[in-house]
## 1
Amino acid sequence: MWSYRHNNFTVHQLPALKDNYIYLIDLHNSETLIAVDPAEAVSISRFCRERDLRLTHIFNTHHHWDHTDGNTALKAKFNAQVIAAADDAHRIPAIDIAVSEHAPPTINGLNITVLELPGHTSGHIAYLIDDALFCGDVLFGAGCGRLFEGTPAQMWASLNKLASLAGQTKVYCAHEYTLPNLRFAHTVDPDNEALEQRIHHDTQTRMDKKPTIPSTIAIEITTNPFLRPLDEQFCNHYAGEANIAADGLSVFTDLRQRKDRY
């Protein structure tokens, strides 16, 4: 487990399953404890037992089982409130409160923004709490989620929404996919010096058995191939090489299809 302190809360990062991360948001001077995307119940229950804490809320970003499998057991054990997107209310187990961009959750004065981010799934959302972004499977370290239910246009719009956040925003995504994503990134962006530096840094980080996550929005904008179409020079160069239109959506679509075949 790793912990990261923010102004009003600490984020505890728990590894789960093969490559998932579960996040626990522990409010300072409060009895509020929020689990984000509980892939399983056992690691959260152990954390609460060892620290004599009670889980109060569950945030789900989308309906996939490896983000919701702990809902039912944790709700039964702690009577925690399950919060998820209104569009996913019929697909997420044990949901109590449905939220949207216009109706974010209200919890102990936290500054919570809900971002609607269709693409990976139709009802995917993220939670922005101060400078901490919990983005599920939309944005990964040097990658983005597959398009299981949405369109390239939807995912490109969602990624643009995330790219507009402050550069120092911490990106707490739900999987440790960074090194494989960086290998693909190097094939499409080989002259990117920032990418080379990230490959070196994150490779060493994993050798030290540490997570590459969280990253930041600024890091992703400069090294993530699915945000690189925002850079005009990259966009024009890639489009010329691929013989496609030199606009962000066309380049993103081609990159996503290429990654699917990689």
Note: The mean pLDDT is 96.
## 2
Amino acid sequence: MGTVSETGFGWLTPVLSYLMACVGGALGLRATVRAVHANSSRSRRNWLVSAAVAIGTGIWTMHFVAMLGFTVAGTEIRYDVLLTLASLLVAIVVVGLGVLLVTRGQGRPLSLAAGGLATGVGVAAMHYLGMGAVHMDGSVSYAPWEVGGSVAIATVAATAALWASLTVRNPLTSLAASLVMGIAVSAMHYTGMAAVQVHVVPGAPPPSGATAMDFIFPLTVGLGSYLFLTAAYVGLSDTGRRPVRPEAAEPAPVPVRAAADGSGRR
């Protein structure tokens, strides 16, 4: 059995991957709040798409940056490009479903539980599909208890983050919600990686696929551009809160008409 390590670059990859998850979570959760208070169906749809892409991209980036530190003694590690990109798409789609459930239910307990479950499962689906993209000289198996624990951690923490983002308006507490989301993604990832068992096959041909470093340049340029544009979109747009309903506004005073005198003049 090959010796598995998650810290090939020391603490750099765990810390950097956690920050990526927090940034994606912060943008996505703020977009979720805007979707809840959107004035029109079109605006709500745009905010939902923004939230799904931000959170999904943050999750995927966290996973990939963390995988830079993944090493197995006795084998090289390569990645299937199509499966790696498919894991990004899965993260965006499934997280989008979770955000949609929460916003449709206006944060009510049942919708929040369904949204948190969908988001947690989305995180797990992205992770294990991404692990399926790993090629090496050997076979990979998983310890079932750690796998179940990773999904449970992701679901509980994602639900807590969604709840905080919808119920608390204080900027510092909103930041705390994104930190919780980062914990959800990171804890799920490293718990899932603790379940990995690699059986190396000595003398096997070198694995095919791209190296992790082949992804670094497009990841840096693409992610940097996306985060800048999304942050500008969230920051420069209005709050998206619904206007006060007419019945809730203070009624205008009714003018008093002067009584007519005997000559017919008012």
Note: The chain has one domain: 4-243.
